[in-house]
Design a protein that fits this description.
The protein has 83 residues and is an all-alpha fold. Helices cover 64% and strands 0% of the residues. It contains three helices and no strands. The chain starts with a helix and ends in a 9-residue tail after the last helix. The model has no long low-confidence stretch (mean pLDDT 76).
Length: 83
């Protein structure tokens, strides 16, 4: 069962809802702030990604039988120590 105060509060909200023009709804300041924060976060992520991608040193391996000979010539095998 509803009390008198809750009934009174509901009648005030209903009249406010009726006078609200649905054709003039805009996102407002909060919508702009949220959009700006998301845009700033994307910009920072892209900047960080570019910095990390510049650090990558990638050399493509040659095709065919040359891959084994260049790898063995570049890094000679270490001899085990006995002693």
């Amino acid at each position: 069962m509803m009390s008198a105060t809750s009934t009174l509060a509901l009648t005030h909200f209903v009249t406010l809802a009726d006078s609200f023009d649905k054709n003039k709804v805009t996102p407002g300041v909060l919508g702009f702030i949220v959009f700006a924060v998301i845009g700033g976060a994307v910009w920072l992520l892209m900047k960080s990604m570019n910095k990390h991608m510049k650090k990558v040193d990638f050399e493509e391996q040659p095709e065919g039988g040359e891959a084994g000979t260049t790898a063995s010539a570049a890094a000679p095998a270490a001899e085990p120590k006995t002693g």
